[in-house]
Design brief:
Strand order of the largest sheet: 3-4-6-5
Helix content: 10-25%
Largest sheet: 4 strands, mixed
Mean pLDDT: 77
Structural class: alpha+beta
Oligomer: single chain
Low-confidence stretches: 23-44, 69-75, 82-91
Radius of gyration: 29 Å
């Protein structure tokens, strides 16, 4: 036995608007003389009479960023009818990044992947961050010159992959704020993960950190090489050391 509803209301002939209509300007309506500015979040730290700008970048291997750039056409074969140049005058990419960012005061780089004994690569980075890009790149000004500081892995049991080219952090400090500063490396950090920039004149401390990734891979005692846990354990201990 079926039942039928007592009554059904018929649908409305016209749907009611549930949102307010957008306001429109008639041809005679006054228009604003200027477009209002959209407020932007503060991305700088007030630092005396200037705004301190700090950049952080995980480069995942810094070598490509201090080599000369090549044009994409340099990878194409040349023909006798359409010769293609295999080189293009260019400047080190790292310096170009600094200029694109308007020369920030501090740049913290993580995972540079430089072996501690590779002094040649370290010297190359110190050079290219200050190499002028062009004739109008006035690198004689202090606000365009940088001091470069490294913390590279020294743990012979936990930082051995790729010939020691793992982890590692680097800090670029603009010379006009580096008149009185100190960079510390914690004694417990043997994997090249932490740099601490102290600017006592300005009551400021900047931490450059490449944090530990927790995995089930073994973690060995840096002194004896004996397995004492996994990378999860090391990650927790790293956070405790950093906090203390």
């Amino acid at each position: 036995m079926s039942t039928r509803p007592a009554s059904l209301s018929p649908p409305p002939l016209k749907r009611r608007r549930i949102t307010r209509p957008k306001a429109s300007l008639s041809p005679t309506s006054p228009r604003p003389s200027t477009i209002p500015k959209i407020s932007q979040p503060e991305t700088t730290t007030h630092f005396g009479s200037i705004n301190l700008r700090i950049y952080s970048w995980n480069v995942n291997g810094i070598a490509p960023y201090f080599n000369q750039q090549r044009s994409i056409t340099s990878f194409f074969p040349t023909t006798s009818t359409t010769p293609i140049s295999t080189t293009r005058p260019s400047s080190p990419f790292l310096r170009a990044c600094l200029r694109r960012w308007a020369f920030p005061h501090v740049v913290c780089l993580q995972e540079v992947k430089i072996a501690p004994q590779d002094t040649s690569s370290q010297a190359s980075i110190r050079r290219v961050v200050n190499d002028p890009l062009s004739d109008d790149d006035n690198n004689a000004a202090l606000h365009r010159l940088y001091d470069t500081h490294f913390n590279l892995p020294r743990d012979k049991h936990n930082a051995t992959g790729f010939g020691g080219k793992v982890y590692g952090v680097c800090m670029l400090v603009r010379r006009d704020i580096a008149t009185a500063f100190k960079i510390r490396i914690p004694d417990w950090d043997l994997e090249g993960r932490v740099q601490i920039l102290e600017l006592p004149k300005h009551a400021l401390v900047v931490f450059g950190v490449y944090a530990v990734n927790g995995t089930t891979n073994p973690y060995r005692d840096p002194g004896t090489g004996k397995v004492v846990g996994d990378r999860h354990m090391r990650k927790r201990r790293f956070h405790e050391e950093l906090r203390d």
